[in-house]
Every structure is written in structure tokens, then in C-alpha cells.
Amino acid sequence: MASTSETGHAKNVANFDDLISFVIGYGTDYNPSKAAIKLTALQSLSAKAKTAISEVHAAQSVNSNAKAAREAAFEPLKRLVTRVMSALKATDTTSQVDDSARTLVRKIRGTRAKHKKAKDEKTAPAPEGKEVREGKEVKEISVSQLSYDNRLDNFDKLVKLLDSIDLYAPNEADLSVPALEALFADLTAKNTAVVEAATHLSNSRIARDAVLYKPDTGMVDISLAVKNYVKSLYGGTNPHYKQVSKLRIKKVLQ
């Protein structure tokens, strides 16, 4: 479903086309001196606006597909690193090495290092100097690092740690260091694709907004100039002016 703002941009263009249709209907009466509101200029602006909106729609599709591909690629990661940890623990590595790997796995999975505070700990007064709101439990600070960038960073650290451990040599192909390195490269590429798609979408919206809403040259200000010219041509009470004055072409906030 299209967002309200996206629908609003399209409605502006549709109303602008109605404005052009009325202008055409005025025939030779419509003869402004301002180049930007001549009929050919209005038609050109309408075409530019439609192209700009179409490019936003295309960029939205690319962005959505990139996000879906990234989400699908990251989805098995939690289970995979759990298996990696189990494979590492099945070797003769030291507890210190296991702890280092476990910390990274925990961050990738987004789990806590310690159990949640007991209820009486949550409701205990805060240390002196900290404000406590009466009747409110102390909120725990989330240590979850589930952003894609953080998960990638910690996964990279985990793979490099495993690569440095001679004892880590699982027979399962998908748990091997080369396989994990290949997975990291794929996840990085998919995350980068989302970043690039989001950037392109943002730039497309900026370009569209310039066509529709830039002061003086955008569709909103141009339509106002057309209405003022029609008013000067026929008068404020004339039916021709009432035709165009009721058309709503206004800036749409994102």
C-alpha cells in the first residue's frame, strides 16, 4: 500500500494535469508573458514530475528487494554461530579461547551475558544521585547488538578468531573457516546493497521534491502563478478562475 505522502505527490501531479487541461481550454485567451507558465512549459514540468515519481517508485522496489535479500541471508546466522560454538567446544581449546568466541557469538545472537535482574533487584532504589520515579521499575539497558553492521563486525571478528585456532578444523563444510569467510563476504555484499539502494532512494526523492516543491520553479509555485494569471485574466469571481482555484497542489511532507 502506498504511503500517504507518496499518494499525495501523485495527487499533486494529477491536479496539475487538470490545471493544464483547463489552460488548454482557454485557447488563445491564455497568453502569459512569464515563460515558466506558458502551456509548453507546464507540459514539460508535468512530464518531468511524472518521470521523477516513477524513478522514486523504481528505487523503492530496488530498496525493498535489497532489504528482503539481506534479511533472508542473515536469518540463519544465529543458528549457524551456535553450531560453530558447539564445534569449537568439542575441541581441546582453552576456556579463555572459548570465552572469547562465546562473547562474539552472544553479540551476534543478541543474547545477554547474564540473566535478567530478579524482580527485587529491578525495584530496588537506584544508587544515590540517580533519579527514581515512584512506582516505576528500574529499566534494564539492552545490550542487544542486532543491527546489521554490528552483527557483521562481530561475525568478522569471530571468523578471524577461528582462523587463528589450529584446533578448529570441523569436518562439516559449512562450519569451516573458508565457508564462513565466503558467508561473511556474501552478507557484507547484501548489506552494502541495502545501503546503496537506500542512498539511491533518498537521492531520487530529493530530485522529485525539487521538481515538485522547489521555490519559484517547482510545481506548487508554478501552479500558484498560473492561478494568479488566470485570476488577472478573468477576475476572481469568474467561473474560469473558480475552475483552477479549487485545485489543491501543495507541498507534501515526508
Quick summary of this structure?
With 254 residues, the protein is an all-alpha fold. It has nine helices and no strands. The longest helix is centred in the C-terminal third of the chain and has 37 residues.
Index terms:
mainly alpha, 2 domains, 65% helix, 0% strand
Task: Give an overview in words.
Residues 117-145 have low confidence and may be disordered. Helix 2 (39-74) packs antiparallel against helix 7 (177-213) and helix 3 packs antiparallel against helix 4 (95-109). Helix content is 65%, strand content 0%. The protein is mainly alpha-helical. It folds into two domains: 4-73 and 197-245; 74-187, no CATH class. 19% of the residues are buried. The radius of gyration is 30 Å and the shape is rod-shaped. It contains nine helices and no strands.
Mean pLDDT: 87
Question: How many domains make up the 3D coordinates?
Answer: 2
In terms of structural class, how would the helical and strand content be classed? Answer: mainly alpha
- Report the count of strand segments: 0
Overall 3D form: rod-shaped
Stretches with pLDDT under 50, minimum 5 residues: 117-145
Kindly estimate the percentage of residues that lie in beta strands according to DSSP: under 5%
Order of helices and strands: HHHHHHHHH
Radius of gyration: 30 Å
Question: How far is the N terminus from the C terminus?
Answer: 16 Å
Described by strand count, sense and barrel closure, the largest sheet is: none
Output the number of helix runs.
Answer: 9
Helix fraction bin: 55-70%
